[in-house]
Design a protein that fits this description.
323 residues, 2-enoyl-CoA Hydratase, Chain A, domain 1, alpha/beta, nine-stranded mixed sheet, globular
Amino acid sequence: MKKISLVFLIVISIFSMSCSGVRIALLDTKFPLKEYTLEGSGTEKILLLPVNGVISDEPKKGLVRTLPSGVQQIVAQLNKAEKDKDIKAVLIKVNSPGGTITASDILYNELMSFKQRTGVKIAVMMMDVAASGAYYIALPADMIMAHPTTITGSVGVLYLKPELFGLMDKFGIGVDVIKFGKHKDMGSPFRVYSAEEQVLIHNLTDELGERFLSLVQKHRHLKENDLEEVKKARVFLPREALKLGLIDKIGYLPDAVVEVKKLAELAADSKVIVYRRSDYPEDNMYNIASVSTEDASRPAINIELPESLSLKAGFYYLWPGAL
């Protein structure tokens, strides 16, 4: 009876965590990526590649197991696509507020390199949010389309740092630091910045922001006035983003498929494919399942905290309004 009660309590606890925002999923990455056709019957293919959530190159840690990072999973799909000569275009379906600076830059570089090596056309379809780092990775695309209700833009940089010294003061706790180098503990959560350190952090942030802005200008060729508006790092709805030159078209996901076929000069019956590790009944382009989702014959529960709770101190191409 006690064993049954314990199992019952565990099930109730897991259900409660699921309802409170802790995600429960069946996950495993031991199975190789498989190709699944979402629509079409021709020989030429369009790879639908989803980019969801905060962009990071750190593994996703759950209570049961650790999963590959989003960057690793996306690069794995690009590597697989490169080996298939029938893939003529990649349509990246983005729903992300951005992420870390390095992870965003890695994906930007991987997409640029993929284009150069293969000659494959790349298009981006923006869904709910494609802001900051998510816009950064869209820059290599030959065509960017936004859903009529997409939020995009936020071309800027955040430096996030937790501050613990106020809380520590309340409990009479301190941290003794012995350092070599004047600025060795700059950014420490255990003390306030000096005036000089404030300037140094601002300079770093400005330099990273200018890098982002220069890439926007390199790929999008904005007018000077429009570039100044984008430089404010605000977000835009699609009509204004189109007017500024941040995107090329407004439409729905099926519209994006039609435009990709035109862009890559593909037949109307070209396949739209996706890489997953498991088959889904009645699968379609709106399935947001991760490529990590495992084969149903080997279930294993992985409980993950919401991504916004795992953000560390550092520089981000991120729109915090979507967290």
